Amino acid sequence: MAPKIPRDRSDDYTREAAAARRRFAAEQAGASLEHVGSFSLDPASLPGNIEHFTGVAQVPIGLAGPLLVDGEHARGEFYVPLATTEGTLVASYNRGMKLLHAAGGVRVTVVEDHMQRAPAFLCEDARQARALSEWLGERFADVAAAAEATSSVASLVEIERYIAGRFLYCRFDYRTGDAAGQNMTGKSTRAACEWIVRENPCGVREYQLEAQLASDKKHSHINTLMTRGKRVVAEAEIPDALLREHLNTSAEALLRQRRISHLGARLSLTTNNGSHSANGLTAMFIATGQDVANIAESHAALVFAEPGADGAYRYSITLTSLIIATHGGGTGLATQRECLELLGCTGPGSAVKLAEIMAATVLCGELSLGAAIAADEWVDAHDRHGRNR
């Protein structure tokens, strides 16, 4: 029988319990976990965030900025923490922020905000599915009351309904405040489904709580269209002279690069016709305590570029499914909280502010990398900043 990982049944979140697991790992694998065991956080703060706590993974954090944001919730200058092991990433985003600061900043707008849980109701045939769909439309207020009874925060705003075969697939769309809301919406939707199968006159008595139409932790085209999390648009117009001064390129060259890249993205059928939104987002996710698996959805983006006034370069990026939080999950842990405080993103209403800062950061990184490709500086930059051996 394989040896079991040590656990303290009375209190498993202590330095002693973590040390016992590091000794166990060393005995089993012959590996030293000296640096894994060096941490300043209190293990007692970790219940609900991790099991079998053994130590920490230390990821370097670099600062980029100042980032100048013209948002509806985030306004002014911000110094952005980026947790990464990829050389050139912080330098590239910092370069884009310098350019956009000189151009007057990044204008950001949150245009939609909701989180889903997507159950399927198991009907006898398509006619019963249609009848249930129509009944749900008529009884939305009652369904919402059942769902919202489980939470002081969750607010059901819509039930999308799609029939396939004899099944009625639904997307329950919620506002979730400053929480990302996946667990919250799961609990609320379960209560709603129990009410539906108990009260509906159509005879439907079975459901599956999650039937993949929310595409949790996976990107999908429905989320590009309908949004999951926050839909955020970041925009900027950069004079040609600033592009030449800061990025060694021109508006004309960037427009050409963007047209070619857009066609390549279409050829590959990617969910993102930009360059690398996952880079900046992942670095900010790690620094601020987000669920990093949500990058699978959050990185999706729609980029558009066009000529601006007087030969300027007008650029926008739409993040269709940005799933972030400033409350709950890992956002309350010690280092992650410090990074949120650095951005001024704590307290009620701060999640939309963080979304605006993230979208503005992404736009800066897109411009910097696009310019590096257009000016043929990409390889040289990685040779200078991205090699450590």
Explained architecture:
The chain is α+β, with helices and mostly antiparallel strands and 389 residues long. It has three domains: 14-58, no CATH class; 61-112 and 228-385, 3-hydroxy-3-methylglutaryl-coenzyme A Reductase, Chain A, domain 2; 119-208, Alpha-Beta Plaits (2-Layer Sandwich), CATH 3.30.70.420. The chain is built from 13 helices and ten strands. It has helices at 15-29, 89-102, 126-138, 140-148, 182-199, 221-226, 240-247, 251-268, 277-288, 295-298, 334-342, 350-374, 378-385; strands at residues 61-70, 75-83, 106-117, 120-122, 155-164, 167-175, 206-208, 229-238, 301-307, 313-322. Strands 1, 2, 3, 4, 5, 6, 7, 8, 9 and 10 form a ten-stranded mixed β-sheet that branches. Strand 9 and strand 10 form a beta hairpin. It is globular. The two termini are 42 Å apart.
What is the strand and helix layout of this fold?
Elements: H1 15-29, E1 61-70, E2 75-83, H2 89-102, E3 106-117, E4 120-122, H3 126-138, H4 140-148, E5 155-164, E6 167-175, H5 182-199, E7 206-208, H6 221-226, E8 229-238, H7 240-247, H8 251-268, H9 277-288, H10 295-298, E9 301-307, E10 313-322, H11 334-342, H12 350-374, H13 378-385
Parallel strand pairs: 1-3
Antiparallel strand pairs: 1-2, 3-6, 3-8, 4-6, 4-7, 5-6, 8-10, 9-10
